[in-house]
Every structure is written in structure tokens, then in C-alpha cells.
Known about the structure:
By secondary structure, this protein is an alpha+beta fold. Helices cover 26% and strands 28% of the residues. The chain has 3 helices and 7 strands; from the N terminus they run H-E-E-E-E-E-E-E-H-H.
Amino acid sequence: MRTGVIEDETAAHEARVRYRARGIEGLEPDDEIRPLLTPGEQLVAVRHAARLDRRQPRSDPRAGLPGDLYVTSVRIVHLGAGPISFELDEIQEAALADERLLLIMRDGTCVVLAVDQPHLLRTQIAAARAAARQRCPETSHAMSGETLDAGTTDTERHGVGIDIEGR
């Protein structure tokens, strides 16, 4: 395994332990994302120089461009040529492919994120989704296999989906 991958997996594991113990701790928003946050929306993670590419069923001419990626308590925001936003609740699946995180949305769209530490980012997104489900369980949907606990996941029960625990 490449050193960067080992460091990323270690950071993801440490984040899971921290989230279980203390929950999500918000970050101070920078001047780029601050005006876009809604009241009560909390910044969870930031990736600078992230590349976003949005695949079928519809394409976006702004996709594939570099920009800064922000994970908040309710959505993912990419600020490149223009803001692109995805609600966390619209994510159905997440998978890792090399240095990319693939998000499969409920409408069939695939969002490919080329970022530093994709394992850690997947954990941060899962933690934000878990916190959102606790705040509003009736409107939240879990990603297949998503868990921050050591319990059984959809992946273990059904052999499909993703496993946030990295097993």
C-alpha cells in the first residue's frame, strides 16, 4: 500500500473513533463558504484543490473543474467555476477508487471527487449524514452499508453497498 493511502486510512480510523466519542465538531467557515451557509448549517470538512466530475444521467458544464470542496451538516458544496451543491440525503452509495471518492446519487448521477485523503472524506461525509439522521430521522436515508458503529452493516447483511468502517 502506498504511504499516502496508509496515512489516509489511519486518519479515517482516528476520525471514526473521535466522532463516536465526541460527535462532529464544526470548523470555522472561511470567507468563501460563509456567505453560502444557511442558519444552523455547520461546516464539517474542507478539501482545497478538489476536482469534481458529474456523470450521467445529466452532465454539468462546470463539472470536472478544480475548486474547493466543503462538507457541511446538510450538503456538499464545490466552489470552482461556480457553486455546485448536493444534499447529503441524496447520496445513495459511496465508493473509493484510488484517489477518488465516487458518490452515487439517488437520481442515478455519479459524482466523482478527486481529493486528498478520500478515505477520511468518506468518513467525514458518513459522520455528517449520521448526525443529520439523528436531527431529523424521518427525512434521512442511510447509504447502503453506512455505519460509524462496530455493528453489522448492510454490506455484511446483504453483501452489497459500502462499508464506512473500511472492512
